[in-house]
Amino acid sequence: MKKIYAVCGKLSKQFRDSLYISITAIGILSTVMSILGVSLNQWTNSAWRSLASVLAGTFILFILAYTLIGKIFKDEVRLTIRRTAVSISVGDIFETSGWKVIGCDNHFDVRVDDVIISKKSLHGQLVLNHASIDELKETIKSEAERLNIPCDEQGLYSFPLGTIIPYESSVDDEKYLLLAMTKLNDQHEAHTNMAQYEQMLMKMWKEIDRVYAMNDIVLPLLGTGIPRFDDGPKENSSLLRCMLCTLNSSGVSLKAKVKIVLYGDAKDYKLYEYKDMFNATNRR
User: Fold this and answer.
1) Burial, 182: exposed, middle or buried (Cβ in 10 Å; 0-12, 13-18, 19+)?
2) Which of 130, 140, 250, 270 holds its CA 20 to 30 A away from the CA of 167?
């Protein structure tokens, strides 16, 4: 029995649920036929043909259920984590409604030159297209003064990882939550490791809880692209799972929706696998 459970545990949720749906449907059909006094043997005149018909019907229903689940949850999946509504979808974070979390270095630097900040990164796009540099500098300075963080010789502040700085842009009238996600080394490379990444996320959720003012929160898949993991590269699915797990572990419960917006193709993330990830926690 343990081996059976081990094998089932390795199957995808989409496969398991499709199998459950098909077997349940065949079971209900068999019950209805028994109540009506109808038997497959009356049509097939053979027990083996009856068994083959049942197996064929189960297989067809399995394929239909598997295909339908794949289509319904291809672009978005919704779940609840500690009473916080979470949606995971594919799209453009700048076109999604809500307060947008933008991962930055812990200095919140504004030098977009493809050396310190990449023009293609969300941080770079924010500075170039969605923000006023003077406003950003003033906002960062004010937050540093509030937290008693001194300024270094280069005019930069070193914020703790996970710090959130709210910024309201006069350029597009959107609200951004700037996140101190990584530290830069002397070569301006963003490095982290999984332990540091998890600690950063834990602080981030608490910071979001502090500032969100019951507004929907929009996040990208944090950790992809520029940051380098010193303990080995991480798959997107691992980063996504870590974001969800740290929200669960943080104890934070938001009275607004958390929208995780993925860039690229949803097929790479197997969204349906996360749908019932925290059901046991939600029943507490």
Assistant:
1) buried
2) 250
